Amino acid sequence: MLVNGERVGPMNPKRGLRQGDPLSPCLFIMCAEGLSALLKKPEASGDTHGIEVCRGAPILTQLLFVDDCFLFCRANLSESTKLKEILQYYEVEKVKEYIG
């Protein structure tokens, strides 16, 4: 690792991220963007459909909060299977492979 252009010895982290860590919001946004990208591909191809809250409103496929995630689709086997597949890709960190 380089700090101010100088090589610093190996770093051995002793603890993981904790609530209030300044890096947490950035990591959340990066992970949320990855999940959003995974959800957009089947929506664009018509494999999944979101919900329309009212006429003229944008279609919602997801609502992401800090500790919750709501995913919307039609209540049928094909769309729920597609969502399950997306979440499995997300779980094993294959976002680039799926989008690519």
List the helices and strands and how they pair.
Elements: E1 2-3, E2 6-7, H1 24-45, E3 51-52, E4 59-60, E5 62-64, E6 69-71, H2 77-91, H3 95-99
Helix pairs in contact: 1-2
As a percent range, the share of helical residues equals: 40-55%
Q: Structurally, how many domains make up the residues?
A: 1
- The average pLDDT value, as a whole number, equals 83
- Radius of gyration equals 18 Å
Secondary-structure element pattern, one letter each: EEHEEEEHH
Q: Main beta sheet, described?
A: 2 strands, antiparallel
Measured between the Cα atoms of the first and last residue, the distance is: 30 Å
The fraction of residues assigned to DSSP E strands is 5-15%
Features:
two-stranded antiparallel ribbon, 6 strands, alpha+beta, 100 residues
Task: Explain what you see.
The protein is α+β, with helices and mostly antiparallel strands and 100 residues long. The protein has one domain. Helices cover 42% and strands 14% of the residues. It has helices at 24-45, 77-91, 95-99; strands spanning 2-3, 6-7, 51-52, 59-60, 62-64, 69-71. The chain has a two-stranded antiparallel ribbon with strand order 1-2. Strands 3-4 form a two-stranded antiparallel ribbon. A two-stranded antiparallel sheet has the order 5-6. α1 (24-45) packs antiparallel against α2 (77-91). The two termini are 30 Å apart. The mean pLDDT is 83.
